[in-house]
Amino acid sequence: MAPMTLHPDSLAVHAGRDDLASLGVHALPLDLSSTNPLPGIDVGGMSYEVLASGGHPFDGGSHVYARLWNPTVARFEEALARLEHGEEGVAFSSGMAAMTAVLLAVAHESGKHHVVAVRPLYGGTDHLLASGLLGIETTYCAADAVADAIRDDTALVILESPANPTLELVDIRAIVAVAAGVPVLVDNTFATPVLQHPLDLGAAMSLHSATKYLGGHGDVVGGVVACDARTAAALRRTRAITGAVLHPLAAYLLHRGLSTLPVRVRAQQESARVVAQWLRTRPEVTRVHYPGFAECDPLGLVGTQQAGPGAMIAIELGGGFEAASSMTAAVQLFTHAVSLGSVDSLIQHPAALTHRPVQSEARPTDALVRLSVGLEDPADLVADLTHALTSIDADSRVRVAATAN
Ligand SMILES: *Cc1c(COP(=O)(O)O)cnc(C)c1O
């Protein structure tokens, strides 16, 4: 087979499976060994040395210990790297573990301890940077202020596009240009490699909370970074030292989930289009944040940078926090829960939940509700949201009546 010629949908099904036929199996093997037999002290020691410093296993060597190497995890990493157009992938126990390893590795490799972060960002990422826990100083800025924020000691620029939770789009190529050689990390969790390839646009790293679309079934927590081979070695070394490895069962589920990623993302995207257009007609909704609407994409990035608008929507409710509270309590088909990208639809209030740790000046408005559209029939989703939005009116009528008394 000539794997480089495969189209993305075929890659999603076949990537990272090159060794299966030689193993005599068809489905992905799940290797749960925490430790591995050593061929001898010398070769074992050499294997340890190579793997702990971020290298690959060599012929006749051992995988030594599961914190250093696991074949099930490595197959998932290979598949994800192919889908992201990266040389290699490095997987972690969560998206935040991946982000932490990136920050530690980049600061260590460059000797620089300053990061520029384009807001908005996922609340956990914003919090990690603001916490100072890693000894890294952060300058937050808007996309058009990155050039001014970069300093001599800047090790990394971090951005999300579409950004969590308001789905703002950032021109990745433009940020790479003004970063002038400082590596740019794009959190590609919302777009997925089905819609966007940050590495092709000049980003040094494409990071995922694999917990979301890559897993896609709400039953795995994981993170992964696609990048060049040199960066991957630094990340594997950091992972070996700090220990935030992905469990092989999680890697198995993530790799299995990749097969259907393109189909899921396209189907969810089509439903989200229907739901977003319908939301725009509702009197309770004062604003719909959805990259498929021209007013949300002033730079025209959907169709160029990003193949489609994706399946995430955020809305602002005229009734503010109380309306959000009524709506999230009233849904029956959507689940009121954090996270996103699953086959089932989720709804949550970013200011109270996912973005709670964000400093107040950057926290999303209390009127904002975020929706992750799943694989249900969009007519059922619209019916559920109709019921939920109607309950806002009912709740506020009850309140008005109570006040009048
Ligand atoms: C959820 C999320 C993360 C964090 O990932 P975890 O797997 O929850 O640690 C990072 N970035 C984005 C955009 C997310 O939505």
From TrEMBL:
InterPro entries associated with the record: Cys/Met-Metab_PyrdxlP-dep_enz, PyrdxlP-dep_Trfase, PyrdxlP-dep_Trfase_major, PyrdxlP-dep_Trfase_small
Keyword Transferase: yes
Residue(s) carrying N6-(pyridoxal phosphate)lysine: 212
EC number in record: 4.4.1.2
Cofactors required: pyridoxal 5'-phosphate
Catalytic activity: L-homocysteine + H2O = 2-oxobutanoate + hydrogen sulfide + NH4(+) + H(+); L-methionine + H2O = methanethiol + 2-oxobutanoate + NH4(+)
UniProt keyword list: Aminotransferase, Pyridoxal phosphate, Transferase
GO CC annotations, alphabetized: cytoplasm
Transcription is among the record's keywords: no
Record-level GO BP terms: cysteine biosynthetic process via cystathionine; transsulfuration
UniProt feature coiled coil, ranges: none
Enzyme class, broadest EC rank: lyase
Any one GO molecular function term: pyridoxal phosphate binding
Family: Belongs to the trans-sulfuration enzymes family.
Name of the protein described by the UniProt record: homocysteine desulfhydrase
Organism in which the protein naturally occurs: Microbacterium allomyrinae
